[in-house]
Write a structure and sequence with these properties.
Length: 334
């Protein structure tokens, strides 16, 4: 790549044309458009004079080595404006200084805005800032970035087979943010963990409730049996003569004896009815289960489990946010 007329005119503007040899700000003998003996022939000596055409020819010849130096140092594709600005700067500071400079390192890392900023640092001569050098660096940095847009970097010419990616980590839609999505996922996982804790507590409560119901169901049965065995309860439907002692000389008729025998046969069935067909039992079981569940959820163990689950949610979400931000910085930094 060769310097354009625009870049050439930039150099001429800041170097200025001197047809007679002079000493620059640091004492180096110079002539024409900033030509020195270090750039090659002709050797500049005190009292030397040249014409404007000779000055332009010398400048063109001198720029060849600086153009080659820039091309060798830059490892990435750059625009014509960038090349012109770099040649102008290199012509002013030298090829060796350019090769080890910060702005070249940033260019090769595709940090073009950072490179333009680093170009402005070369504004000193003899250890002090020079106004003319400061203006020149500003002009070179402006030319370097002219026509450049951050969106132009890392753009593929052929999109076939290439994954579509976001160009910048600065997302306007929170729903599309990996950070928010990851935090949501982490929160969901924590919620599942907390839910499992409550389910475990509920299962424990149901088991405890079931054991109490079993014990409670046996107690009324025992009481009913003891009442039946003791004979303390009477059935108004039984014949009276079957329950009372007979007087002397009194006898039961065949019909009464048959009724008493029938009553004795039916008595066990009457006792078993409350145990198998009592409608109040299911209601009592549900109420006891609810009491046990409420007690389990409100216990210290359940509260500790909730606190632990909330802590796990917060830690997972924080870790994911940090990882996502670091990944954004590494892959999308400007």
């Amino acid at each position: 790549m060769d310097i354009s007329n625009r870049g050439l005119n930039l150099i001429k503007e800041f170097e200025g044309l001197e047809l007679e040899a002079y000493q620059d700000i640091v004492g180096v003998w110079t002539i024409g458009y900033g030509h020195t003996s270090m750039a090659g022939p002709p050797e500049v000596k005190p009292g030397m004079e040249i014409t404007e055409a000779e000055a332009s020819e010398i400048l063109r010849r001198d720029l060849g080595q600086y153009e080659n130096g820039v091309e060798r140092a830059v490892k990435v594709e750059i625009t014509q404006n960038m090349f012109d600005a770099l040649v102008s700067l290199t012509y002013n500071i030298g090829v060796n200084a350019m090769k080890g400079s910060t702005f070249i390192k940033r260019i090769n890392n595709r940090d073009y805005e950072g490179a333009a900023e680093a170009m402005k640092w070369w504004n000193k001569a003899g250890g002090r800032v020079v106004a003319g050098l400061k203006r020149r660096r500003e002009a070179e940095a402006a030319l370097f970035l002219e026509g450049y847009s951050p969106e132009d970097t890392d753009i593929l010419d052929d999109q076939r087979g290439a994954p579509i990616e976001e160009n910048s980590p600065r997302r306007g839609n929170l729903g599309e943010s990996r950070t928010v999505g990851g935090a949501t996922a982490a929160g969901g996982a924590g919620a599942v963990a907390a839910g499992s804790v409550f389910l475990d507590n509920r299962n424990d409560a149901n088991e405890e409730s079931g054991s109490e119901d079993t014990a409670g169901g046996e107690t009324p049965g025992d009481g009913d049996a003891s009442a039946g065995d003791g004979g303390t309860s009477t059935d108004d439907g039984d014949p009276p003569n079957c329950q009372e002692p007979l007087e002397e000389g009194e006898e039961l008729t065949d019909t009464e004896l048959a009724e008493c025998e029938l009553a004795e046969e039916e008595t066990p069935e009457v006792v078993d009815v409350p145990e198998t067909e009592t409608p109040a039992e299911p209601v009592s079981t549900i109420e006891k289960a609810e009491e046990v569940f409420v007690s389990a959820v409100g216990s210290d163990e359940a509260l500790d489990a909730i606190v632990i689950a909330a802590g796990v949610i917060a830690i997972i979400a924080a870790i994911y946010i940090v990882i996502a931000r670091v990944d954004d910085w590494r892959n999308h930094k400007r």
